[in-house]
Structure formats: structure tokens, C-alpha cells
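not sure who needs this but someone in the group chat was asking about Pyruvate kinase from Microbacterium thalassium so here u go. i didnt clean anything up, its just raw.
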Amino acid sequence: MATGTDASLPAAGAEPHTRRERLSALRDDLRDLRLNAERREERLADAIDAVHPSHRRCAANLAHYLALRAHDLRPVQERLSAEGLSSLGRMEADVLGNLDAVLGILGDVLDGGVAPVGRTVNVCDTDALGLAAAALLGGEPEDRTTRIMVTLPSEAADDCALVGGFADAGMDVARINCAHDDPEAWARMADHVRAVGSGIPIAMDLAGPKVRTGPIQPMTGRKAAKKPRLVVHPGDLITLTASPDAVQATVGPRHRIGCTLPEAVDAVEVGHRVAFDDGDIEGVVELTRPGEADVRVTLAAPGGAKLRAKKGINLPNTELPVAALTAEDRAALPHVVAIGDMVQLSFTRSVEDVRDLFDALDELGADDLGVVVKIETPSGFVALPEILFELMRRERVGVMIARGDLGVEVGFARLAEVQEEILWLCEAARLPVIWATEVLDNLAATGIPTRAEVTDAAAGDRAECVMLNKGPHIPEAIRALDDILTRMNQHLRKKRPLLRKLQSWEREE
């Protein structure tokens, strides 16, 4: 590599002109970044020391990554690329290692091979993420690194052949949704999974504090709908009430609907967003009074959106005064511990939520149970660094990107960047990620995939596991996902392209 003809270095504050000057300035900037990374590790020393020994070096790497991403690195990246050096675009797994690799090259050019300034690199093992994923989710399938998690339907409790069909199609992890059925049914589902004999791990998904609409009385008369509902239009007013009583079905412009979590009604404030039924209906709180909140509808289908009982309510701006681990979840935990290989904590929003679950598991003597935190709210996303440090106190842990509620809560325009940032942060911590919600949903429901959902499923290859939900065509969806992930594993590993030989355009000479 040429070093330039001018051996002098620029004066302080001068714009570098020769290549040697530019490389010297880059080295100074990278040394500053490295020093900041080490200082962040020192400030987080207590949190790093508290994690499980298997995660300790990875926790240090997470601290380094947080330090670097506190800066806008784009100008430095452009300068590095212009000099033919690594732009640090894939540094998540080994922050100091990437910095030192570039500093080493710069040292060869500028000083004739002097080692970079700094202590010996102490980063996580190269395969730490693979080991963590195997510990939590089971070993890698034969032809892909990304596992397939399948949500078991209620029928799986009484149909062992159905579960066997899922396994034959490519299911690697079985998910039991504790918001449905009962402990006896969960146990039968688990028995059927284990009867397959392939060592498929079982994930028990706690219901969490899901907020839903209350009951609705049916209309009377000839035009009464079979399923009672409110017909909501843009501009309508919905009074959200803490009362458990059934409300009358209405067609607008004023409606009332109950909320299954009364504390949520008292927590909302004027100006807060409210979304119903996975965001199909949205509004803003105009007025509050004890036990009620008036919501002006800002988004609904022009011809009227149907809002029924037991549909989800999302409150993105509202801090709910309830813990992620509900009383119902605590009652379910003894059964979860007896049945599952891991537990998934819904609506994780804070370090305290993780501690509550750990304490509850300790009381049950289940400190070795795998734990997955589900990130599905803005508060959980903002608190993710602290949540990861707390989570790493246990050995078998991971993160689920629960994109259903997360998309409604952060807004669909921001969902794509949020899920990317979660992937990056978890790779820096070397923790496995589950890519969840609406993967191949149309295929699972109808047997026919959409083009967009095939592309989405392919993007899930960057996670360690992709989750499928229920549907009459789940075996077809599993096989399709298996094929998609197997193909994509040949082209991409996290953010790193794999340049295998392309045969699509090969021609005989």
C-alpha cells in the first residue's frame, strides 16, 4: 500500500491533503472511538460482572457497541471506504476486534507495523452466538442455521399425528400459547411433541397484560349481525370504559366499548394514541374522566371498520401501571416450569419485568429454565440495553421481536428500522433472536403466499429462529419457510453477504 510522498503530518486543525495525513487523522479518530468503548466498559463494569460467566465477554462487547453507536459514524465510514479500508459496517460481533484490525493496517502503513494502542482485545468467542442459540433453541438443522418455531393450535392437544406432521415438515421449536387452552391441554401438546422423539424444545408463551375490548350485545331486528360489533368511521367518537358490562352494538357516530384492563383507562391522558384491532382503527384521546376516556377516531376504513369484542387495544403513549408478569401468568408458571424448556415473557418493558420473572422462577426452583423476553412496546425497545444486561444473568436466554404489537405501538413506518436495531444490539450481545408475527400468514391461512411475505420470511434468515403462527395450511408454510431459509443461508449470514458461486447466468464458453 502506497504511503504518499509527503512524510510530514498536518498541523493541528489543518485539513489533511496527502494520503499519509488522511490515514493519520483516521487513526486518531479510531483511537478515540476505541478509548470511548473502553471507558463505557469501565462504567458498566458492575453490570458486566453480574452476568453469567458464559456471557461476560459478550456483555463487554455490548458495552463497546453502545459506545460506538452513540456517535454518528457515517463520516468516518466514508473516509475509511475511500481509503479501501473496512467501514466497520459489520462490527456488531466484535467491536474492538474490528477497530484493532483497521488500526493494525494503519500502523503497518504509518509506523511500519507498530501494534495498535490499547489493551489485549477481550471479546466474545467467534461462535458464542451459535452456542447460545443451540443452548436455548436446540442444535442447528442440517441445511440452515435459522430454526423454525411453530405455534401449536388447540387441536394439537388431541392429535399427535398433527404434531408429527409439523415435525416432518421442518418444525425445530414448538410454541404453546398460554393465552389459550389450559394446563391440561398444554401438557398433552408437550407430550405429543416429545413423542415425535426428535428433541424439539418447547417454548411456553405467557399471556402478559394484553389489553382487549370488552363484550358487545348484539343488535336486534332483521339487520342484526351474527357477530355483534361496532361499525366505526373516521371522525367517530369511541368512549373507552373501565366497566366490564356489555355495550350495545352501534354503527356510529358515537360508540362505547369496555376495556379488559381497567387500570389502562385511568392511565391514558389527553393526546395519547389508542389503536384497536392490530391498528385497523386508531384514534387520539380527547377527554378523560374517572373510568372513561373519549377517543376521536383518526383512522378507519372509509366504509366503516368493524370492531368486535376481545380485540387488542394498544396504548403506545401510555405507561400501564401493571407488571409484565400478571397474576394469571404467576398462576400458570408452575405448569410452565413442569412442561416447557423455555418461557417467553410478553410485553417486557423494563429491567424490573425481567427481575420479577427471575424471582418467580427461583421460587419454583427453575433457575435453569430458558427465558425469552418479547419486545413489543416502545418502552421495551428504549430499555433494551438495560434489559439485555439483566437477561444475561442467566445462561439460556434470548429475545423475540414481537412485530404484531410492536408495529402498532411504534408505528408501521418505523417498524423496519426498529427491528433492525434490535437485531444489531442482540448480535453485539451474542444473544439469539426470534423473528415473529405474521410470517407467511397468508400462506398459512389460505395456502397461497403473497410476494411481500415471502420477502419478509427471507429477511428473517438474519435471526436465529423464525416463528410461524397458526393456520389450516401450517405444514405447507413450514415447508416453504424451510426452503426459503435454506436458500438464503447460502447467501447471507447476519449482515455479511456470502459470495457463493452464482449459476443463474452461467453460460458455456
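also Confidence is low (pLDDT under 50) at residues 1-12, 116-123. if thats useful
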